[in-house]
Amino acid sequence: MAPLAALSFGRSSSARFGSRTTSFNSPRVLSRRKWLPYSASPSLTSIASILFLSSLAFALYLFAFRRIPATSPEFFFGPGQDCDVFAGSWVPDDTYPLYNSSECPFAERGFNCLANGRTDTGYLRWRWKPSNCDVPRFDAREALSRLRGKRIVFVGDSMSRTQWESLICMLMTGVDDKQSVYEVNGSKISKTIGFLGVRFRGFNLSVEFFRSVFLVQQGLPPKQGPKRVQSTLKLDKLDRMNKRWMDSDVLIFNSGHWWTATKLFDMGCYFQVDGLLRLGLPITAAFKMALETWASWVEMMVNTNRTHVFLRTFEPSHWSDSNQKVCEITQQPTSEAKGDDRSEFGDIITEVVGKMRASVTVLNVTLMGKFRSDAHVGTWSHPASILDCSHWCLPGVPDAWNELLLSSLFANEWRKFGR
Ligand SMILES: *[C@@H]1O[C@H](CO)[C@@H](O)[C@H](O)[C@H]1NC(C)=O
Ligand SMILES: *[C@@H]1O[C@H](CO)[C@@H](O)[C@H](O)[C@H]1NC(C)=O
Ligand SMILES: *[C@@H]1O[C@H](CO)[C@@H](O)[C@H](O)[C@H]1NC(C)=O
Ligand SMILES: *[C@@H]1O[C@H](CO)[C@@H](O)[C@H](O)[C@H]1NC(C)=O
Ligand SMILES: *[C@@H]1O[C@H](CO)[C@@H](O)[C@H](O)[C@H]1NC(C)=O
């Protein structure tokens, strides 16, 4: 860990990357020009050879582009970039899915829709395509070699657990000895487990998950409070586990799905700030205070010279009613962005992160999820229970979150490492 911590990272220095057009001007591509046959009236053969040579050049370009991802602007995103990788659409792609959940011991059965009886498979074959650039194709071996020696920590609710599972399954496709990947305490995945840590022994890599659905502390209410108050969320105190998150290379947070009256007030959980109950505080205001607590924790406690901090935005659900009882799983993504995106949470994230001095990357997955009413767990969970239009099947949408996560990491500072 020490060698990494000693290096300084410049996060927002995008200018040193050339634009995509300049990479066409590389000597290799220029020298190709003299091969082109010139003639006053091009014959069919010369047109054919021009076509052939340009496709060859394009293939060469693609090859070079895959070889030297670090210099390719497509891999970079951040403030002020040309390409907003979160604005785009899903395109059909038969090279997906990236893995088979039945062959990945860390994909929980509840998310393995195919194993739980889903018969249509079209939902597996979609790639996220940003409008103005491409996400580099995931390459498990390359990713593993770049992640060697790193500690990646996911913190949040079940959506974070899904992303944790997805990343492990994606990476495991590049590991020959599957036994060399194991959970450190031999723990089994469950909905309520607080900590899961998977080690890739051959790569000295760990990928961990901490369950912290609100990110702030939940605890006993102050004495003399009303009877209905059975617990409180201390909006000004980060989850006690926070000490175990700090010493990492990558930290990915999310929170959102638990900030509802059903999961809070109906369960007797109310808000508390500075020791005082705040019974009338609206949920959005509470979410904002919790996020501000998180933001100052990042600024004070995390060495962002070493640790890359990500915050994932709300993952849309596709319920047709407000009671979350009815929904329809389509067979294909919708052409329009639909679904509940809790846009007020997105606005709060924009505002809070916008004020931070520390560098944090927002993984803005909200829009991309809104097209994917086809990709939820539905009734294909395990044990088969109620209809679910919140969680996602694996493989599926969370894999795309990870492709964006990795491309962000590799595009930025980590191009200096692992090669
Ligand atoms: C996934 O793997 C399982 C077990 O090896 C196999 O039975 C199944 O056909 C595979 N599914 C796909 C879609 O390849
Ligand atoms: C494994 O990685 C950690 C950093 O996460 C480092 O401190 C340690 O020296 C590495 N061990 C080996 C055997 O490379
Ligand atoms: C699991 O392992 C971690 C790290 O090795 C350790 O800190 C923690 O106490 C263990 N937890 C349990 C429940 O065994
Ligand atoms: C992070 O790097 C900057 C620039 O190199 C340096 O000024 C700062 O002290 C570093 N912060 C920490 C916590 O190491
Ligand atoms: C996420 O992307 C959407 C659509 O591009 C945008 O409206 C929203 O402001 C973004 N949110 C954040 C937090 O960056």
Automatic annotation (TrEMBL):
Pfam families: PC-Esterase (PF13839), PMR5N (PF14416). Keywords: Golgi apparatus, Membrane, Signal-anchor, Transmembrane, Transmembrane helix. GO terms for cellular component: Golgi membrane. It comes from the Eukaryota. The chain crosses the membrane at residues 38-63. Residues 135-407 form the Trichome birefringence-like C-terminal domain. It is found in: Golgi apparatus membrane. One of its GO terms (molecular function) is xylan O-acetyltransferase activity. This is Trichome birefringence-like N-terminal domain-containing protein.
